[in-house]
Records
---
Amino acid sequence: MSANSSSFLQNKVAVITGASKGIGKASAIALARLGATVVINYSSDEQSAQETLAEVKKIGSGEARIVRADVGSVAGAQSLVKQAVDAYSKIDVLVANAGVMPMMDLEHTTEEAFDRTFAVNVKGPYFLAQAAAPHMAKGSHIIFMSTTLTTASTVQPPYLLYNSTKGAIEQMTRVISKDLGRKGILVNCVAPGPTGTDLFFRGKSEELLKTIAGFNPQGRIGTPEEIAEAVVFLSQSSWVSGQVVRANGGMA
């Protein structure tokens, strides 16, 4: 890391999907704080995207803009990349953060839910990387998002569909790092533990949240900002590639 870390990403362009809230928002702010120009992608919540944009502009030294695109489709992924490259001519850091987390065990999984979850969580990142790679120079970074639950023994049956997609992401990380490594592009993945986002809190009782917090040796749930720290680390590394960083406070 540079001694002057506040400008380490000066003149770098970072594209973050699902950046209107949660981990995506925290990552956009963290990268902007390091001087990056930030492209904030969202699919539906424009108000939250505008709020993220305002915060990024307040603390960042680079430019910033929002781009609406459904990155669960190939056309949406390609559109996001095109708009970013049209505006800034390149992509230096790609954070494929957008995702959905339906809670469905085997019995209750529908074909519609299966297709949509794999579209957003797997197909989107896959083709986003394909579209972005030609515009990324040596030393650029692609960062995927998984979950600590791919290895945690505490995983419960309703995480089946979600975890299936994240298992695919971890294999994509491993193999794409070999592929794009030939161009000098570093590919990694962050696998958060339980993290206090709107997506995580949805549908969970206070009792359940206390139970989940108890799985962690620190007795709490992580914050989006703490996951963004791992994104920042990977966006600056010159030798870490093909790795899954399990940012979970020691839970697993």
Note: The longest strand covers residues 37-42.
---
Amino acid sequence: MSLTLRLMGAMMRLTVRPMMRRATDPQKMRHHFERAARRWFRPVPHMHAIPCQFPAPGSDLHAVRDALWVGAGPVMSDQVLLYLHGGGYIAGSPKTHQAMVARISRMTGLRAFVPDYRLAPEHPLPAALQDARAAHAHLLQRGYRPDQIILGGDSAGGGLALALLAELCQNSQPPAAAFALSPFCDLAFTGASVQGNGRRDHFFPGDRGPYLAQMILGDLAPDDPRASPLYANFPDCPPVLIQVSDAEILYDDARRMADKLHDAGAEVILQIWQDAPHVWQIFDGWFPEARAALRDVARFLQRFT
């Protein structure tokens, strides 16, 4: 482990973790996340983030959702990354994650479509999944075949990507591959690491899980596959890469999700990093473990590009 990671990890435990324990207002959490992204998430050379819109789900033919086309340097025209940002389903946006996504684009040549899906508690689940599904349909309408699309996401976005993956597999529209960074896969919070890493996690106290679930679940049961892909089915699943830290409360989400996909017959690569913070990849440019993890993502994706 690098000295930089140790120092930044200690700082996170002293500053971010107490804030997350007290946080109750989603609007303030969104504001803090957006401000932190501008300060800490470093831009990528030749990065571009182009605003766009796509048709929103539902019966209103004129309703649209916002999104960003994100890339860095030359990008391919015949393949695309559908990336779903994290933020616990209550915060985050394409802008908070555009730097990390641009780094993946620079490493792979993939252009990324990053939808601004609806957030809870104003729009509880399955609103986010409905928007992710609509974003995928939009890419199909633009001429991409299902096997020209790669799914990716982090944290809640990682769980969302896996929930969408399950639906696509069940509908015979599997993507070329998928990856999930520290995915949030079980809103029932049954993983042993929720309590076992409750004091070790850099960001999240384990006992805050039920409060978060109450905000984001709406009328869904915690084990509904649309909210918790750990309980979904994945027929004919494509290869999946999962990265997680052994210090996270979501460590068992990732481990059990890998087992679930493996039992479904999928090729699964589970990479476990030591004592890294939740979604450490987003700190690319600050400590070497972030860049190393993104290189592993890029190597995985290059098999399908």
Note: Strands lie at 47-55, 64-72, 80-84, 111-115, 149-154, 177-181, 240-245, 268-273.
---
Amino acid sequence: MSTTVDQAGRSLADPKTYLDEERLHAALSLLRRESPVHLVEAPDYNPFWAITRHADIMEIERDHALWINEPRPLLAAAEFDRLQEEQRAMGMALSTLIHMDDPHHRVVRAIGADWFRPKAMRALQPRIDELAHRYVDRLAELGGECDFVQQVAVHYPLYVILSLLGLPESDFPRMLKLTQELFGGQDEELQRGTTAEEQMAALFDFFNYFNAVTAARRAEPTDDLASAIANARVDGEYLSDVDVASYYVIIATAGHDTTSSTISGGLHALIEHPDQLTRLKENPDLLPLATDEMIRWVTPVKEFMRTATRDTQVGGVPIAKGESVLLSYPSANRDEDIFDDPFRFDIGRDPNRHLAFGFGVHYCLGAALARMEIRSLYTALLPRLESIELAGTPEWTATTFVGGLKHLPIRYTLT
């Protein structure tokens, strides 16, 4: 039975769509072709417009005065939207950089920006290289067969970002579990519970943990990102408790989960395309291009949303003030109008105008760090990799927001 455009649109509100990449991209290709600005009315969700073409997403991302993040920065069920609105009214809602608009966004973003600038990244390079070699050694110790996601990929970028924050290594397993519960709230294996209240509990655990971090860093400032956030002042005042905790949450979660998804998805792509693996091993200078191709291929952030501040049009379709649009990044990154043969995994793709990091004022703060981590791991891995194959069936996370592979069983030989 063929899929209709309405069914394709509704599939974007179904976390299980992202378990099957073939199904996902078939739906997105249909929408790009027949209804690139499509009104979605899905059960349990407030209506939204699905935006699937690269050019339309770029147009929206460029105009952050017309298209704002609040009050609906990401796709969630109507019940969750309602709960967030109640918490916002009480001053208790999550308020990360992805929830904010200028001018507040610009001021708050600047607090952490210096930690991700090129100079800071150059200083961090030796430590990242050291960690990359440590985790390739760990791969060797596992004896030739492992679940690459759970035993290697989730730990390496987690260690990097939490070290940058200055958190104790003993807390890393707790941060990993909370991240998986927060981003895996729609996945039966990872979720804490099925109700909005149960899923919000993971967020409150984050808040409680980071409130204690804030108190400690204000009492005794240290030379780490956590201290910079805790002691930042705007107009002479500390950030609110919610803003501080939210800042920590976005750094501590998105700062590693998206990177581990790309590392895992990139390895899966190389296994599935052995000609590209051979090409990369023989031409290591292609690694910077290969890194961006992995990022495009995986696109770990599936969507963000924006709300119109006035009546407007996208792609000739009228959108009223107050209506929300969903920016489908996996769709933009397979757009036939932008990418030559977009469904080909090409480690030498150049140019590569992917939107996996977003665009404009909300461009990912940690993009340079993510690229550095991916390059470092593959720089350490590829010279030692003699053979690799799947040792089971890969499994993806059920999500409509952030995710990728959650299990990648592999069999391999390393020197």
Note: Residues 5-414 form a domain with the Cytochrome p450 fold (CATH 1.10.630.10).
